[in-house]
Amino acid sequence: ETGVTQTPRHLVMGMTNKKSLKCEQHLGHNAMYWYKQSAKKPLELMFVYSLEERVENNSVPSRFSPECPNSSHLFLHLHTLQPEDSALYLCASSQEWDTNQPQHFGDGTRLSIL
Amino acid sequence: DAKTTQPPSMDCAEGRAANLPCNHSTISGNEYVYWYRQIHSQGPQYIIHGLKNNETNEMASLIITEDRKSSTLILPHATLRDTAVYYCIVRVLWDYKLSFGAGTTVTVRA
Question: Chain B residues with CB inside 8 Å of A103's CB?
């Protein structure tokens, strides 16, 4: 496989459930990102990791908990979500976070909160 | 804050070149211009980026004006699969955030 892979592609969960989104990149990049894309709103950056260290936590509620065990994998742990958290969650990676090299995105996880 | 201005939509004939304009009149000297596109139900796809010189890759060409206040993305031979929302983004090296605006919805017609 090449590029950035996200699983699952679709997820439906209740507000009291706990689930995790997974992202894997096969590009040898050192930086990884989580974005949220809601309907009719621009992408919102949630978290940035560089070499497994969190660089940015963009005022994201604590019900979203990221984990970066190594530079190829990124998780987003979800618990007690709200209906307004229904969105497309996108993972991206780049060579480093502070160069001109572009971010490459996965196809996202479509999350629906019941 | 929107740093770029793009037309909301445009049509293009299949097989013809598609020229997508972007205005970034407040761009600073250390900001790069990036182009992405997003096809329905997929993540954004990187197309091309540049600082001040024109750039070309297997997907497209990027023409940046000499004053850097505007740019044009050129898809040389548009196909139906190029139908997507195209985003023009300016970004400085030390800002890891990509600020996507509303983009241009490009529809390629047979």
Answer: 46, 98
DSSP string, B40-103: TTS--EEEEEESSS-EE-SS-EEEE-TTSSEEEEEESS--GGG-EEEEEEEEETT-------S-
| CB contact at 8 A, A63 and A111 | no
Query: Any residues with CB less than 8 A from the CB of B3 and at least 6 apart, and which?
Result: B24, B26, B27, B31, B89, B90, B99
pLDDT at B2: 54
Q: What is the mean pLDDT of chain B?
A: 94
Q: What is the pLDDT of residue B107?
A: 98
Q: Give backbone dihedrals phi and psi of A49, rounded to 5 degrees, phi first.
A: -125, 140
Q: Under an 8 A CB cutoff, do A42 and B42 touch? A: no
pLDDT exceeds cutoff 80 at A47:
yes
Minimum CA–CA partner of B44 in chain A: A105
CB contact under 8 A, B93 and A99: yes
